[in-house]
Amino acid sequence: MRWFRERTSRWQDWPPGWLLDRKRSTGARISVVIPARNEEATVGNIVTELRQALMLAAPLVDEIVVMNSDSGDRTAAVAAEAGATVYSAREVAPSLGAHPGKGEALWKSLLVTKGELLVFVDADLTGWGPYFVTGLLGPLLADDDVMLVKGFYRRVRTDIGGSTSAEGGRVTELVARPLLSLWWPELAGVVQPLAGEWATRRSLLESLSLPVGYGIELSTLLDTAAGYGLGSIAQVDLDSRAHKHQSNHDLALMAAELLVVAERRKPATGGLPAGSTLDQFVRQHGAARPLSRPIPVHERPPIRSVRDNLEPTVDMA
């Protein structure tokens, strides 16, 4: 996977001091956007840590914007108290109407943010750090040809008994990765195609059609590759990520959204590609390693269509 080797970096490769120098030399403004719905327990800490590390200690980020999506709790108040600029996604440009969903919040954020560089961070993180933002900014500030940066990580899941594991990303492994391996194998080197932590140039995102729900991460990846090529995409290893997990019913809806996104963009190949492989990743010695496995795609014809032409090989008596 040449692209994987050339376009993958670690968050440690992008020190804040270097990023700040690059920001000053380019004059780029940077916005961090946090879409949130009923995340009062975690959004305040995320805003506080980002503001302290990347606005007060080092003026790297110009604004932290929380897009509140119909929360029924104190998400908006907690975020504002922590120092974020808070908008109700439904109340931004009401003449355009409103839809529930993460993609809608990010689409509406383009109307209220100022940065040429946009970093998106989920509001339910519990295991993370401000280096999520600095890591994602690195490739954008280093290379003008990079349009989209995806984060990836070891996903930590806290089980009922309190143990943790590296398992997680069920929709990624069961839906997104098979879709990419079958129809967009050139993107199979993207470790976490559905990662909620990613960064982009405003000029890119304003040019794309964006699904209003969870399909936004997949659609952005596919459309960026189609419009600008693999060289416009980079990814950064953000180590590990912990967050709350959704029910299987909610994940099923997310999976359906991804299938809609894929169907709208699926190449007209006329059939499944021969010799398909499922490209997955495993953690070895602290790094992501690719693992390819063949996908059985051959189908046998109805047995009645071939039975009469077969030589007897088994004594049926």
Topology record:
Elements: H1 2-6, E1 8-10, H2 16-26, E2 30-36, H3 43-56, E3 63-68, H4 75-82, E4 85-88, H5 102-109, E5 117-120, E6 125-127, H6 131-142, E7 148-158, E8 164-165, H7 170-183, E9 198-201, H8 202-205, H9 216-228, E10 233-243, H10 248-265, E11 277-284, E12 287-294, H11 304-307
Parallel strand pairs: 1-10, 2-3, 2-5, 3-4, 7-10
Antiparallel strand pairs: 5-9, 6-10, 7-8, 7-9, 11-12
Helix pairs in contact: 2-6, 3-4, 7-10, 9-10
Helix percent reads: 25-40%
Low-confidence stretches: 160-168
Head-to-tail CA distance between termini: 54 Å
Radius of gyration: 22 Å
**CATH C-level:** Alpha Beta
Beta fraction: 15-25%
Number of domains: 1
CATH superfamily placement: Spore Coat Polysaccharide Biosynthesis Protein SpsA, Chain A
Structural class, judged by helices and strands? alpha/beta
Number of helices: 11
Query: CATH fold name, please?
Result: Spore Coat Polysaccharide Biosynthesis Protein SpsA, Chain A
Biggest β-sheet strands, sense, barrel: 10 strands, mixed
Architecture per CATH nomenclature, i.e. the level-2 architecture: Alpha-Beta Complex
Total beta strand runs? 12
Mean pLDDT: 89
Order of helices and strands: HEHEHEHEHEEHEEHEHHEHEEH
Q: In one word, what is the shape? A: globular
Q: What would you say this structure looks like, in words?
A:
The structure is a single chain. The protein has 317 residues and is of the alpha/beta class. The chain is built from 11 helices and 12 strands. Strands 1, 2, 3, 4, 5, 6, 7, 8, 9 and 10 form a 10-stranded mixed sheet that branches. The chain has a two-stranded antiparallel ribbon with strand order 11-12. Strand 7 (148-158) and strand 8 (164-165) form a beta hairpin.
